[in-house]
Amino acid sequence: MAFVRCGDCAHFLPDEVGDGTGIGNCFRFEEYKLKNPSEAALVKARASMGKGLLYPSVERDCSKFGGKNEKS
Predict the structure, then answer these.
(1) What's the burial of 11, exposed, middle or buried (CB within 10 Å: 0-12/13-18/19+)?
(2) Distance of CA 12 to CAs 31, 40, 47, 59, 70, Å?
C-alpha cells in the first residue's frame, strides 16, 4: 500500500483550534466509534489507519484513505 497524508484524505477532520495544521481526526474512525465496538475492535480499527497521530502532513499507510475528490 502506498503512503498517504491525512491532509489529502476526504475523511480527515482538521483541528478546529488554530490554523488547521495540528492534530486532527478521521471521520470514518469517529463514525465507527458510534457503533460502540469492543475495545479490541477499536484497537484493530485504529491500526488500520496506520501508526502515529493524525497530523495532516504526516505520511502513513492507511487502508481507509479516500482522496479529497472521492466520495465515501
Answers:
(1) buried
(2) 12, 23, 16, 13, 12
- The C-alpha atoms of residue 68 and residue 15 are separated, in whole angstroms, by 17
Report yes or no: 46 and 52 within 8 Å, Cβ to Cβ: no
Phi, psi angle pair for 13, to nearest 5°: -110, 105
**pLDDT tens profile 25-51:** 889 899 999 999 999 999 998 888 877
Grid look-up 488500520 returns: 48
Q: Domain-by-domain residue ranges, the chain? A: 4-60
